Amino acid sequence: MQRDQAKNIIEAMLFVSDKPLFVGEIKGVLEEFNANDVKDIVTELGKEYEDTQRAFRVKEIAGGYQVVTDPMLAPWLKRLYKTSGSDRLTGPSLETLAIIAYKQPATKPDIEMIRGVNVDGVLKTLIERNLVRVAGRKETIGRPMLYGTTSDFLQYFGLNSLEELPRLEEFNITEKDIELPEHLKKEEEEVSIGDSQPAEEPHQSNMEEKQDEIKESSEENR
User: Fold this and answer.
1) Residues contacting residue 2 through CB under 8 Å, at least 6 positions apart
2) Pairing of strands 132-137, 106-107
3) How many CB atoms lie within 10 A of CB 221?
4) Rounded-to-integer distance, Cα 14 and Cα 67, Å
5) With the C-alpha atoms ordered 43, 49, 50, 56, is the resulting torsion angle positive or negative?
6) How far, in Å, CA of 198 to CA of 201, rounded?
7) Which domains does the chain have, with CATH numbers?
8) How many Å apart are CA 46 and CA 33, to the nearest integer?
9) What are the φ/ψ torsions at residue 146 (nearest 5 degrees)?
10) Which candidate, 132, 153, 160, places its Cα nearest to that of 64?
């Protein structure tokens, strides 16, 4: 197969796919080409689109490649296509998702402390939409669940990795603004330390004191 034909096939695959395509998936179709060949062809396609000022771009999203429209055209596309209410994230969902994205892994109490409201329903919705996942449990009292974002989260926001998230400073927010208050952090540390220390035998010290008393008494009787 000629390289130009392979490029056409890859371009067609990118156009018909409604999600990012991974190099391995493309290789599965074009078995004659290795991973580096596929990457080079995709890069070449992307450069062609930019050089000829086409209306779309090839973007790396969630570790794969996807054809997307030029962001400069967004104002006109919004007039044509309006996102239905069921597809949009509500304000509370966005706030909760932002806290998880920047603080992950985060527990429900962490999120509720920052937002100041119960997030049971919001978390359930985000998990159902596969934007948030259970990432484990925190080794503290009660072992609360830890939450993190998913690859669908990256796709939803058009990100290749979490490193592409906007810096908090751009919103006049610092990492301290999404941290737990000091007194709660200390409580968690104390609980963790208490859990890690072996439990002291309750009657050991009393038994030692009694043994000393018996020993002293026997010496006096002598």
Assistant:
1) none
2) unpaired
3) 6
4) 6
5) negative
6) 9
7) 3-70 (1.10.10.10), 85-196 (1.10.10.10)
8) 18
9) -105, 140
10) 160
CA distance 164 to 214: 72
Residue type, 95: E
Nearest to 46 by CA among 77, 100, 7: 7
Letter for the amino acid at 28? G
pLDDT tens, position by position, for the chain (222 residues)? 889 999 999 999 999 998 999 999 999 999 899 999 999 999 999 999 999 999 999 999 999 999 999 989 988 888 887 655 556 788 899 999 999 999 999 999 999 999 989 999 999 999 999 999 999 999 888 899 999 999 999 988 889 899 888 887 666 665 555 555 454 445 455 544 454 454 444 444 444 554 455 445 444 444
Structural contact between residues 64 and 35, judged by C-beta atoms closer than 8 angstroms: no
CA distance 60 to 183: 42
Measuring CA to CA, how many Å separate 7 from each of 20, 42, 54, 60, 81? 17, 8, 17, 17, 30
The type of residue at 36 is N
53 contacts 72 by C-beta, under 8 angstroms:
no
Q: What's the length of the chain?
A: 222
Start-to-end CA distance of the chain, whole Å, equals 107
